[in-house]
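Appendix B, record 7
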Amino acid sequence: MTITASDLKRKLKNREVTETLAIRLHRAISWLKCAEENEKNLDLQFAGLWISFNACYAIEDRADGSLTERELFGDFIRKLVACDLEGQFFQLLWKKFSGPVRMLIENEYVYKPFWDFQRGQIKEWKKLHQRSIDESKQFLSVGNVEGLLEVVLDRLYVLRNQMLHGGATYKSKVNRSQLRDGCNMLKLMVPLTISLMLLNEKTDWGKIHYPVVG
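Structure tokens (predicted):
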């Protein structure tokens, strides 16, 4: 069953949550709605989905900048998995592993060391890529949801950088496969993420970026 932005908006309205979480999820749902409205445009759909996801996990900047994006992902994933008592993320990953998850993981164009190699920063990437693919299969076989989600988000973050930093041409034919796989993955992950956060309002999801002022 597909969870839509309208479904989530209605659920948010009917639950008592803190003002901070309400703002966070309202923002996330609004960008999920944007993605739904641009379903036929992969570039805009991906942008909407990523911003929606970003609204879920982003926290107020720390003065010392101590957390990297990867560490933010790790902390956020651990909270999500701890809240996912019914194993919905595992079921999602298990059912979709032969489709968008596997294709995203196997696509070298969203694998950071591939681009490090192109820039001359490392001497080899293929063995590392294969090791990452093998680790992903191992994570799935033993039910390591955190590990597999981190690999998926690592790939999605490379795609995010390509798109949102102007590293790809609008409606380009070159990056369609990874963009399609990325959208297919985020279309499943984002609504589930919002749903879990909504059901676990007492979890500390952190202070939001740019709180409403005035």
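Remarks on this record: Residues 176-199 form the longest helix (24 residues). The chain has a mean pLDDT of 92.
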